[in-house]
Amino acid sequence: MSSTPNQQLEPILNKQQLVDYLVAGCKPKSEWRIGTEHEKFLFYRNNHKPLTYDGTNGIRHILTNLNRFGWKIIYENDRPIALQREGAAITLEPGGQFELSGAPLYNLHQTHAEFAQHFSELEILQREMDFGILCLGFQPKWKRQDIDWMPKARYQIMREYMPKKGKLGIDMMLRTCTVQANLDFSSEHDMVRKFRLSMALQPVVTAIFANSPFFEGKNISFQSYRSWVWTDTDPDRSGILDFVFKPEMSFERYVDYLLSIPMYFVYRDGQYINVAGESFLNLMHGRLKAVPGSKAMIGDWVNHLTVAFPEVRLKRYLEMRGADCVHPTLLPALPALWVGLLYDDQALDAAEELISTWSVTDIKKLRLDVPKFGLHANISNKPIHQIAKQIVMIAHQALQRRNIQNQNGVTEGIYLEPLINMLEKQKNPALIMLDQYETQAHIDQIFTKYGF
Q1: Structure confidence by residue, pLDDT tens digits, 393-429
Q2: What is the pTM for the complete model shown?
Q3: Residue 218's CB: how many other CB atoms inside 10 A?
Q4: How far apart are CA 317 and CA 326, in angstroms?
Q5: What is the rounded CA–CA span in Å between residue 402 and residue 386?
Q6: CA 443, CA 452: separation in Å to the nearest integer?
């Protein structure tokens, strides 16, 4: 559920309104949907350099040319910065990472079709403009100074603030790509169960989808360097949330967490205003010097929800945020895994039993071990590759029970088969890439072998 323009302007008079905004996300199972977001790097095929915004056949040109497929162009200061079409959006991350935020869909076959249409449209432009696409979790070659910042005012505010909170925040903004799944809940109890399970399992999923073993042309002994970047980005708003596992977890407890997170900006009269480090509570009381007398509206709260970056994020749905971007052939596996685990009661029970002995300390340690060790990290003296196989099989059985078939009579379980095959060999995309890279002469081979 999204807010209408009039609702966005509703003044916030008390904390209960903030809680009620999240509660409004509860919906019956018949209305549960699947949303998937994925980012990718765009590069010039002739030299493997990143596309600039304004350059020849650059990102601006791609956005305006996608208009022919029915996308509506969104402008900021007369510059195209996003596209919208039928509940979906294309947006730009700070370093030009090209993101599809998919529409809320009924099933994974529709998700697969959405991906296919997206890449088909980009392929037409690729033939005309000669750019390539690379789906990895961290940029394997480019340095920070190689990358063009996108002309979005909110990114300039974050760019100035990030170095005050961690060493790798700028890398997170410029050089990472992810794929995430957005899923619904029916009640506060249902939300809490799903939040706890997905937060606990997120490091395992990170290990399964690890796909960023290179940094500036070198193998640096990481399987998911993207995931490691998040450990030194901004501790105020990222990582594993301890309180999610405590009895008091609720919509209100998450609101309290959000109110403890410093703001980045407010949006007034078509402009982003820098209030980085300020308290949302002060905005509620009209005490921000940058916008004297201006008080918080629901639209400000909607924006503030987006500046929390935990491994799982609550809005009016749950966002599973811990996976590296992977090749399009593997992309549907991420939402398939989470739909299987969270949208089936039997699977939810089985997965909860699997993690029942894990402590928050165990999970946080695993979160730090997985970027380096991937599937060979351990929790409670058990290798992650064993747990990964178990949760994928639990999800696969759940999707078989869902029994939603495509036109060929195949269930959604088909999207997990690539994971099942990888995990049988105790592999993830990073390990497969590293095996192949050992025989490659130069990092540019990554662009030709894995780019398309």
Answers
A1: 999 999 999 999 999 999 999 999 999 999 999 999 9
A2: 0.94
A3: 11
A4: 23
A5: 25
A6: 16
Half-sphere exposure of 181 (CA within 13 A, CB side): 30
> Which two three-digit tokens encode residue 219?
């193998």
> Over pLDDT 70: what percentage of the chain?
98
Three-class SS state of 218: strand
Whether 110 shows a pLDDT value over 50: the answer reads yes
CA 176/CA 224 separation, integer angstroms: 10
The domain total for the chain is: 1
CATH code for position 316: 3.30.590.20
Q: Which amino acid is at 125?
A: L
What are the beta bridge partners of residue 215? 218
d(CA 198, CA 28): 20
> Which neighbouring-strand residues pair with 40?
98
Q: What whole-number distance in Å separates Cα of residue 433 and Cα of residue 429?
A: 6
Residue 231 is assigned to a structural domain of this protein = yes
Secondary structure of residue 307 in the 3-state scheme: coil
What are the φ and ψ backbone dihedral angles of 158, each rounded to 5 degrees?
-65, -35
Q: Are strands 271-274 and 72-76 parallel, antiparallel or unpaired?
A: unpaired
Residue 357 included in any domain: yes
Copy the structure tokens of residue 405: 């078939």
| Mean pLDDT score across all residues of the chain | 95
- N-to-C CA span, the chain: 35
Strand partners, 50: 43
- Average pLDDT on 141-158 reads 96
Asked if 392 contacts 416 with a C-beta cutoff of 8 angstroms, the reply is yes
What average pLDDT does the segment 118-138 reach? Answer: 97
* Residue 445, in any domain of the structure: no
**Mean pLDDT, range 259-278, rounded to an integer:** 94
Number of CB atoms found within 10 A of residue 154's CB: 17
How deeply is 304 buried, as exposed, middle or buried, from its count of CB atoms within 10 A (0-12, 13-18, 19+)? buried
- Res 1 pLDDT > 50: no
Q: Is the dihedral of CA 49, 90, 234, 296 positive or negative?
A: positive
Residue 289 lies in a domain: no
Residues of the domain holding 60: 32-261+308-438
Give the integer Cα–Cα distance in Å for 24 and 371.
35
More reliable by pLDDT, 117 or 56 = 117
